[in-house]
Amino acid sequence: MSSWNPSQYSSIFAHITLSDISQARTTGSNESPVLEVTSEARSKGYDSVCLPLTTDAWKKRWTNMCLVPSSPGDDKKKRESRRESKLMSRDFSAEKKAEAWREKPVFEANEVTMTRLGEFTCIAALNFYNNRLDEAESVTAIISEWLELDTDDDWIRLDTEIVSQTRLGLFSDNDVSLRQALHQELSYASYLNIQTAILPAPRNRQYTACYARAVNACLQSSPFMNLAIRLPIYDPSAAQDPLSPASPSSGRPLLPSPKIQRTSSLSSSLPPTPRLVVSQSSQNTSHPKTLEEQIDASWEIWDLIRSLCDYNPRLSLALDLTPPLPNSPSVLGKWSAEAVRYIFLPASAFIANAKGYPVLPKPTQAFIRDSITHRPNIILSGVSSGIHSKGSEVAYSQYIRHLERTSTVVQAAEKSGTVENFAQGYQDYLQAPLQPLMDNLQSITYQTFEQDPVKYKNYEEAVYKALSEWHEDGRIVICVAGAGRGPLVARCLSAIQRSKRDAFIYAVEKNPNAFVTLQGRQRNEWKDKVKLLFGDMRMIELPEQVDILVSELLGSFGDNELSPECLDGAMRLLKSDGISIPSSYTAHLAPLSSSKLYNEAKSTKDDKNLETPYVVMFQAVNLLSGNGGGPSGQCGPRIQECWEFEHPRKETVLDPQGLPLTNSHNARFAKLRFHIPHAGVLHGLAGYFEAVLYRNIGLSIHPHRKDQISKDMLSWFPLFFPFKEPLYLPSNSELQVSIWRLTNQRQVWYEWHAESFLYGLGSDLGLTSAPSTPPIPTPNVGAPIATSSPLIDAVDIAPERRSSVVLDTLLPGRALVKIGHTSLHNAGGRSSWIGL
Amino acid sequence: MSSWNPSQYSSIFAHITLSDISQARTTGSNESPVLEVTSEARSKGYDSVCLPLTTDAWKKRWTNMCLVPSSPGDDKKKRESRRESKLMSRDFSAEKKAEAWREKPVFEANEVTMTRLGEFTCIAALNFYNNRLDEAESVTAIISEWLELDTDDDWIRLDTEIVSQTRLGLFSDNDVSLRQALHQELSYASYLNIQTAILPAPRNRQYTACYARAVNACLQSSPFMNLAIRLPIYDPSAAQDPLSPASPSSGRPLLPSPKIQRTSSLSSSLPPTPRLVVSQSSQNTSHPKTLEEQIDASWEIWDLIRSLCDYNPRLSLALDLTPPLPNSPSVLGKWSAEAVRYIFLPASAFIANAKGYPVLPKPTQAFIRDSITHRPNIILSGVSSGIHSKGSEVAYSQYIRHLERTSTVVQAAEKSGTVENFAQGYQDYLQAPLQPLMDNLQSITYQTFEQDPVKYKNYEEAVYKALSEWHEDGRIVICVAGAGRGPLVARCLSAIQRSKRDAFIYAVEKNPNAFVTLQGRQRNEWKDKVKLLFGDMRMIELPEQVDILVSELLGSFGDNELSPECLDGAMRLLKSDGISIPSSYTAHLAPLSSSKLYNEAKSTKDDKNLETPYVVMFQAVNLLSGNGGGPSGQCGPRIQECWEFEHPRKETVLDPQGLPLTNSHNARFAKLRFHIPHAGVLHGLAGYFEAVLYRNIGLSIHPHRKDQISKDMLSWFPLFFPFKEPLYLPSNSELQVSIWRLTNQRQVWYEWHAESFLYGLGSDLGLTSAPSTPPIPTPNVGAPIATSSPLIDAVDIAPERRSSVVLDTLLPGRALVKIGHTSLHNAGGRSSWIGL
């Protein structure tokens, strides 16, 4: 999406209304009204504008053609399709016009806001554009807000949405495909080279599938247009079950009729902003929704739309913050995993501070600050109406800029030494995990990781502590297993110096290229304090067994770069009472939602990409799990430990060379149970590790503990285990995740799987198996059979055990009900394994 | 699977036990014991045998290697992995053996039942096999039933299942991959050229994912082996929530530990048959399961296994009918949609009739009769033990044969004139629907449909009735629109003759090839009673307008062969008070489960195949919907009407040629709501039609009404709308199906989608947005700001409307909770449209 402001901050948009345009028309300037208002917006510091595509003239014509005029006093049927009343009115004139329009959908010039195109020099914009500017340049178009893609009147919906579409290449130019209002508007917006259009908000949960289908058809038929769905963050008036009619005024029976519904229950004035009237008390069927549930319901509408559009990357959200936000960050966190490209912020969402200036309430402040990470376009609306006593229109955008500058993400990104700063540009970027055992790393890779100040500081501290506490006097022998370009060797030497112990270092490295660097450093720096040995730590022989074995073989998930296998092979180098640094490490998982990561992983259309874990710096991500407990009371915490590896391990059967006979002891399995407090879509699992280097010194990328253990450590981004198909998880459900670490003599791989459960109600269906009256023998089917034949039926006495089962089980109650599962991922290690 | 009996009936297998084999060993025959028992089984009339692959010697060795010997008096820990107790016992000798075995898994000769292979002439089998027979010939192997693929002891599970697998082509022959017990047995069975192995029953719902993963690994590593999972139709002892431990004797805490579980809770004697002890009263957490719920739970285990194995066609079920069946056909119907290749039927499932002969209880009878359609292999077990006083061993299989002969399916298939007889070989075969408007049909296609006696009889009846009731005297003009090879013309002539009316027929046909046939029939049969006209009914001009327009343009879903569009084009040929035969037709849908159809549709790995509706004669199919109502009370019936088309339609705007300006009036939409009483997997939708030809004469393939309206009509099989991804539907859930008929000037297509809902419990999470105590102003982040700045926060007063929302919504309650949805199918008509 283009904008006047290419900075790394959010763009701030002015929301231009039809009335703004018509007022501009009266100024007598020689520019067009639209150019007038847009240049005025630029002069006020806005980055861009969004404005309606059509005028009231179009609404009037469409209404006359397609709707029956409202008759006063009949509230329930104010709007009705022309087609519906045809048989009664026998007035074909409007319907004939509509059919002619449906066949050849053309706007009249006064029905659209923008018509002037082509060469035009705008003085105010000269600094951005050198040669030309037309009215639609970098404008975001707002599609007619009165279009109801989800009305329950089928014929109105047909005239609203695209009924059909041109299939490119299939037809000659003579083919005129039927395109109705929405398609007509998008088609005109495309003609104007508008990049993004904002669609009217979905209003009717009962017909969201229709809305979604129409949007999907538009994405297919307008292959270069970005569509943003305007969505109020919640709609208090829709506080019912998803299948109940949304409007309390509906007079229709609730049972869906198999025939097309022909009456409309919506009021004739379609509010462009969400309905804020709280009218739950007038509803009867189910309990009124809490604010959190309403936000979940709003998200559910979005989820349905984008799912039906198959996560199309051209589809995004214009999140409407008109309703006041709750103080519950957890329910709002879900939006960080969604494609929120616009935030619609009306002046009414601001409150006055003590001095009368417009500021946002705390929850909205926090939400905006968190959203800044994703650089949404913020649309300010109604800010020229002066509803706050102090500060001009400019005060609103200045306040937004203030929130940006003071957000933790922006501050962290601007501060050197933070992960956020280090990882600029790597957010949500999928990287294949390193396989340092199979591949020899490049020097640049070593260099990147050697930049990490925290990791090596902690290693030095661990070695220092181990040396200081070493139980014997005299010479201590250290082996650095996997020395790379030497950072651990240098830290060990420093630790030796600090500890004032007599110690010697063997440095083992199997990468022949890195070994060149090591030789240089030995010659120049380390001299005879270090002995270099070239070879694989699983095969190499040392002149003596060592006291301390130091290695840095950990991956984002702990064991995923085969540290357990390598150290199994190196343990023969360590004395039986020796120390391994690290001494143990654990792998941790949490369920994750991220439409962005899901789209990235599936983007190549190759299933293999959804069977491989990735290293990712998470950003547009939401962890779905809550703090444990859950409906069953048996769920673990938000992030759960899978398994642990300890070194040295003593209980393995070894061959004469000191190597394990098989690798089966390094297989692992974990079954984790998570509480899912808010509805969400499972796209994958987030993987983290935590390692104990020595005693209380460790390394951690566990989100809740990393700051205590190894703050600002840069070397590891988390691991992302994707799922091929998104799994919908309802609010207050439970998720059981199974993950395996599997191995043979040559490979290690992970398989993962998830099942979801909900506390449902026990079946009220009764039981049909217990005959309460004596059964009546039924006649045999087929030919008559002699009475002594073995084929004659027994008199049908229910066996004892059967009825006892029945009697025991007729109690009603609740049960944890299975509601879905993923497929088994990376089954059999087909696509992702790590060579030993 | 090969069998000795190639007939179209089920094969009956004898279940041979280790004790049968060891008794045979003592007969002194010069054949091997296994050959002795198998030839004896053949002589008793069995079609084949299944027998255990391994002996007790193997069980003993494996137990000694991998388990700790049980210590009397310690019930809770009878079995424990060797590895577990290593640290305590420090006895490595068994573990060393186990590691050696894990590295090189080889049976000793006395550990398997079959060893003799190669050239061997068996006299008793000469009539079947001319040259050779070995012990394993056409035997189904039963894998060691004591293998626990789902035990909660990780190390035992590892020694049981395959830990790893050989990747064909990746390694040299020297690579010895680790293969443990299951893989070792399957590998040996493969070596014997055994085609199918029956795996031990899953026992532990908590670890079903582990069982499934192991099975999937076996399917990958044994690429030619068929695997059948033995599954008791229900397990009364597992009457709990799916996530609770299955065994009531478990002493473990319920909270899953992130570390590996190391204690085993299973008893040491693993019953080969399911546990029938009803012990629900000793459980506390949730309500005990009803028998129906237990059957659903058993199916859920199967569903999880086959889903994790990605619907592998080599995976099937050996359904174990040891537990007595309930009298509830609806809960048992689900098994008809599954790959039940074996039915395990012990003598204990039989009861004695009045004469003492073994017969089955009514529910089992009905189940077996219904299952016959799928020709399962029936395994009779324990039938030689003489538990029934009358009838020898032979009585059991004779009784099964009797059930077969008297089943309605077999009887219908053997009776000519029935659909079942006509459709032999077409069951579950996916056919692309005809497109008679776009393609000119072949003569053979016409011939097939002309065989239908009922359809043309009803057409003749409708024309006869219309003629008889015609309101004017004098000449009546009929047009047969789409005459094909002439069957409708002939029936119209016959109706004219019967009605004694003066009538004349125009016969219109656009297929030039069929028109040749028509000309022949006119010359030879019809003479001047019929005028033939060549051309498309939408373009052709007749010499006069007609009184009755007869057409047969219906597809399986009514309008899917474009009858509405063709008749729109032909209506100008009909007088304004004329009659169309048919006068209307409706489309009907029901949600459907069928692993077979799902596998068929996805078999080519081309997504397009899952976006196209198919014509299918349903067999291995289960309709998931119940009779309406549902938790919300708002669900429609089992099969629901989508929409209707009527002819002539009068309310359309027409152009001067009498044709509609656009086709938008033929667009349709239906939203249907189904109750799903029993857990199932949605694989697609079943589509049916019903047509009114004239007054009360019609055509119908609606399963509940076809027999009243057009019994034994052969021309239409139902339509199958597939879903790309199976959707799990819990018991007592609701399914909302949306389906669209969409159109442009040149094409018609369907799109379909489904959403599932469950009555869950309202969130108990409370609401965090209503501060009950006055909020404390928090300090600003960032630099201090002057007190008059617009950037100072407001004192955080919750707006009025916010708290009013909160107060209204804090009531607890139940709600219909969304739990999943399919993707939008055939979105944009990409793959499946019908040309106009």
Overall shape of chain A: it is: elongated
Identify the biggest protein-protein contact and residues per side.
Answer: A-B, 198 and 198 residues
Oligomeric state of the chains in view: homodimer
Strand-residue proportion of chain A: 15-25%
Radius of gyration of chain A: 34 Å
Q: How many helices of chain A in DSSP terms?
A: 22
Helix share of residues of chain A?
Answer: 25-40%
Structural class determined from secondary elements of chain A = alpha/beta
Give the overall pLDDT of chain A as a whole number.
Answer: 78
InterPro entries (chains A, B): Arg_MeTrfase, PRMT5, PRMT5_C, PRMT5_TIM, SAM-dependent_MTases_sf
Keywords (chains A, B): Methyltransferase, S-adenosyl-L-methionine, Transferase
Organism (chains A, B): Marasmiellus scandens
Protein name (chains A, B): Protein arginine N-methyltransferase
Task: Based on the model shown, name its key terms.
homodimer, 836 residues, alpha/beta, seven-stranded antiparallel β-sheet, 21% strand
Molecular structure report:
The structure is a homodimer. The model of chain A is unreliable at about 1-5, about 70-80, about 85-90, about 120-130, about 160-180, about 245-285, about 760-790 and about 795-815 (pLDDT under 50). The radius of gyration of chain A is 34 Å and the shape is elongated. Chain A is of the alpha/beta class. In chain A, the strands form five sheets. Chain A has an eight-stranded parallel β-barrel. Chain A contains 22 helices and 27 strands. In chain A, α9 links the parallel β5 (about 225-230) and β6 (about 315-320). In chain A, α3 packs across α5 (about 95-105), α8 runs parallel beside α9 and α16 crosses α17. The interface between A and B is large, with 198 and 198 residues. Chains A, B: This is Protein arginine N-methyltransferase.
